[in-house]
Amino acid sequence: MGSNATIPASGSFISRNLKDKNYFSSIHIVRVLSVDVPSGLIQVGAPVNDTLRMPLLGLSVPPDDSNNQQPNPKASSWGRYIPQVNDMILVAFATDGKPYAVGHSSISYNFMAAADAELEGEGGIGWGFVSGKTLKPGDWDFKASRGATLYLGDKATLGSSICSLTLSQNSQDLTLSAPLSIQKAGNSIIRYGSARRLVLPTDPSESFLYALSRPELAQEFTVDLRCNNLIPGGLSLAYFSMGDVIDELKKTVQVSNTGFPVRRSFSATDITGLIPYYTETVDAGGNYELGAPFAFSFKWTTPAAAWEVISLSTSITSSTTMNLTSIATMTLDSAIIKVGALAASPVVKGTELVAAFTKFSGIMTGFTTSATAPDPTGVTSGAAWAALAANLLILITDLTAALSKKVVVE
Predict the structure, then answer these.
(1) First to last CA, the chain
(2) Which CATH class is domain 14-63+72-104?
(3) Could you tell me what percentage of the chain is helix, strand and coil, using 3-state DSSP and rounding each to the nearest 5?
(4) d(CA 266, CA 242)
(5) What residue ranges do the domains of the chain occupy?
(6) In this predicted model, what pLDDT tens digit does every residue of 328-386 receive, in sequence order?
(7) What is the C-alpha to C-alpha distance for residues 260 and 148, in angstroms, rounded to an integer?
(8) Helix H segments across 272-318?
(9) Which of 227, 235, 237, 238 is nearest to 186 (CA)?
């Protein structure tokens, strides 16, 4: 008894045909040996040993709207992953025997989990539980070789190095984490975090700036609102900064006139954006400075407020008229009050002034009484004395009325 099947001899045509059929009808897992990114080609190893096009997630180039025979690259869409050396690629063959890379295989999950655990002291490699990540069916997880990540699960997280943006559906918030956050809108810019600037216009990139009297990077929150015009970068219309305020000309932490680091600064320019019309600063010593050299009006309106100003020394200068008005009592309380361009003449205290005029009034009353009496010698007429007495009485009356208004310098 035996089989009637004919067993092909080794090296025969039938044997080689069966071998080729098995080879071409299979999907092979091959290793990437080299990558040519500009050309989109990869060289793979055994058993294929060929140069292939990179496998793509997707690539579409639709026809132009005005000419269906012409492609429209501007409307194209794609999804591509650039393989790395040692990646495992799936290769299949077309009916003409030509090989194509049709997808990606993977190395063992256990290997990646072990590598994650091995680097636990450094926070892992971002793979799984050791790195603080727990994946569930239906989640997406992406990581690029240079560090950028995308996670889509119970939250959406986009990350790169120590920078991340997280949208949480559980806590309903957005969290941006980075040493420095920069927002741009036109020529305007908002900076929040570690201060950084172009120290020289020719610098290829910005440099971090250091704080004064603290061994760390300067920290700022700065809003620079700029106009959109033909000048590169625009012109600053309004500028607000707090924290370690940066001097935009010197590219260092700004120092006030009193020698302290500035902690808050606000300025506004004219309609050209060139001339600062208003500046306001507060430094680390609490010193406050405000300037509006071209202003035509400066007004505080607080009709229901009680103002209290306490200072060591106060100077108020007006280049023209100064009016002080009070609908109630106005009191100036000082040991010595001086009036005059050189402030050389002290004002008499009100209590002393009243006492002096009271005494003067008594003297003048007695004088007028005697002046209106008949002149025994006949040298002066009674009418002349009466006229003098009348004028003196008017003076006394006016002085008494003025003093009775109680505008008193005490």
Answers:
(1) 142
(2) mainly beta
(3) 20, 30, 50
(4) 9
(5) 14-63+72-104, 198-291, 329-410
(6) 887 777 777 666 656 555 555 566 666 666 766 766 666 666 655 555 555 455 565 66
(7) 41
(8) none
(9) 227
